[in-house]
Each structure stands twice: as structure tokens, then as C-alpha cells.
Amino acid sequence: MALDLVSYLLIVLVVVLHVVVLGFVLRKRPKSIAGKHVVVTGGSSGIGLWTAIHCFKRGANVTIVARNMQILSKAKEVIEKSRVNDEQKIHIKSLDLAKSYDVVEAGMKEIEDEMKLPIYMLVNCAGLAVCGLVEEVSVQDAKFMMDVNYYGTYYPTRYVLPKMKAAGQGIIVITSSQAALLGIYGYGPYAATKFALRGLAETIHMEASQAGVDVTLALPCDTDTPGFEREEKTKPQETKLISSSGGLVQPSVVAERLVDDALTGSFFSVYGLESWILSILCVGMAPWSGFYLNMLQIVLLSPLRLVSFFIRRNFNSIIRDCAKAKPKKD
């Protein structure tokens, strides 16, 4: 029995190595965004700011969108340091993406007019998190997260999508979260907004890929951003312990992977072993991302399902231990 198990694992390892090597050799070449217009929402800090920097390094003209004009101006100065040619332009736009579609539509039109270029690539990075048990997060906060995280992505995406389809080209990045792959203690209303974004990304991919529009769903793990610092203030202890297993990643690294994946047409953009495992476990009916990657997913899905049992068991153990440590209510 032991020999059979070892043989099986060796076969899996050999297949995985072959698939990885073939995938590396045959990987797609990234598209060029030099001279094209990239719009990054939530571009004044964190992953959004670093995404704008990496796009600017590739020769793109960049517009960053957020609400606070003062922070946007400081972000522009940071991005300027990555200029690669004198022709590049960088604009900033103060816009409340959650206000209404009419407001966003008017703002996006102004962005295109100011840059004098159509939007070739839209990177949706605006978002926030308020943590807590489902019954503890206020209804107002739950609605606010849906407005910012979902509608703040849906509105600008809704604006660019028909234009990109008509042009026969374009890239849309929807930044979601690992919380779009599984429900996590203390992330209930937030996870709902991120699951919604995954559904939006998969639908747009099915509707628009034949028209030449690429869609990438970014699933970042815990990232060292100002948003993460605010999120930590509302996290239950159970949530902190569960999410800490993946460590804390720098936004520059996550953003670089996001840009690379978007330009090579990958549907999922993940960073780190934990995120990669979760994306395979939860791949479901996600878009086909190339023969070799899908063969790898097929081979690994069964053994990783067993791994997931122990991961969930660990999560449940954390929750039980925390419950024991809490004072009992009268």
C-alpha cells in the first residue's frame, strides 16, 4: 500500500514537472502597452499605485483615479520617477466611483478627453474591507462595501466594455481577493462583494473574449497597504490567525505579477503558494487558461482536495480555541 502511494506521488511529481517546463517554454508573450492609455482606479496607494508604476515603466500613458486630490498629486510625483520617455503622459482624476453610473460615465469621458486617447487597459483596484461577524457588521457598512467594491468596479468596467469590444482590443483587470475563493471567518459581507466580482469577471470573459477583450481576475493575498492597515483594526482575532498563515506581501510584487498576468492574457492572477493552491482548488468553471496550465490543474486537483481538508480542519481548530478563550456571556 505504501509503495503504491509513493509510486502515485512520484508519477504526479513527474507529470507536474513536465507540465511546468512545457508551460514555461510555451508561455505567451506579453502584449505591449507602450504609448497606450491605462486607467488605474484606486491608483493613489497600495496595489493600484504600484500597478500604475509598473505600467508607466512599460511606456504606457497612465491615468490614476481616486477621490482625494492631494493624495493623487503625491502619487503622480512617485509615478513620474518611472518615466521611460518624454512622450509619456500621466493624469490624475478625482472621482467617486461608487456614486452612480452617470457620474462615473461623465468622469471616464473626461479622462479620455484629457488624455486624448481611448482607454486600452482598465485596472480596477479601488476597494475596502470592514471585517466582523455577519451579524456584527452594520448594514450601512455592508452596503458601503458593495457600493465601493462591486459598483466601484462595475461602473467603469461597464463604460469601457462596449468601447473595447467595438475596437476589437482591450484589457480589463478586476481586483478581487482570496475571499472570492472561499468564505472566511470574519469576512462575510466583504467576501460577498468579492464573490460578486469573480462572477462579473467570469461573465465578461465569456461575453467579450471573442471580441478581443482580455479579462484578468486578480486574487491578491494579504498585502502591506494602507487599506490592509485599516482592515486590521476591525478583524476578529480568529480572522487574523487564519489569514496570517499566508504572510504579508509587498504591493510592488503583487502589482508586478498583476500586470504581467494581464498582459499575457491570464484569467487568474495570483501570487504565492497559498493563493496558487486556492486558485486550483476553486477553479470550478473558470475560463480555460491554456492546455498545459489546465493539465496541471487536473493532475493536482485531487491531491489538493485532500490538503484542503487539513487546511479547513486547522481553521476550525483556531475558531474553537478562540471561542474557549473568550469569556462566556451570561
Q: Strand fraction band?
A: 5-15%
Number of strands: 7
So how many helices? 11
What is the residue-averaged pLDDT? 89
What about the largest sheet?
7 strands, parallel
Pfam families: adh_short (PF00106)
Function: Catalyzes the reduction of 3'-oxosphinganine (3-ketodihydrosphingosine/KDS) to sphinganine (dihydrosphingosine/DHS), the second step of de novo sphingolipid biosynthesis.
InterPro entries: KDSR-like, NAD(P)-bd_dom_sf, Sc_DH/Rdtase_CS, SDR_fam
Catalytic activity: sphinganine + NADP(+) = 3-oxosphinganine + NADPH + H(+)
Describe the protein:
The structure is a single chain. This protein is an alpha/beta fold. The chain has a single domain (32-325), classed as Rossmann fold, CATH 3.40.50.720. Helix content is 56%, strand content 11%. It has helices at residues 2-25, 46-57, 69-80, 101-115, 139-167, 188-208, 226-232, 237-243, 251-263, 273-281, 291-325, and strands at 37-41, 61-66, 90-94, 119-124, 170-175, 213-218, 268-269. It has a 7-stranded parallel sheet with strand order 3-2-1-4-5-6-7, sandwiched between helices. α2 links the parallel β1 (37-41) and β2. α1 (2-25) crosses α11 (291-325), α2 (46-57) runs parallel beside α3 (69-80) and α8 runs antiparallel to α11 (291-325). The chain crosses the membrane at residues 6-26, 267-286, 292-311. This is 3-dehydrosphinganine reductase. Catalyzes the reduction of 3'-oxosphinganine (3-ketodihydrosphingosine/KDS) to sphinganine (dihydrosphingosine/DHS), the second step of de novo sphingolipid biosynthesis. Pathway: Sphingolipid metabolism; Lipid metabolism; sphingolipid metabolism. Belongs to the short-chain dehydrogenases/reductases (SDR) family.
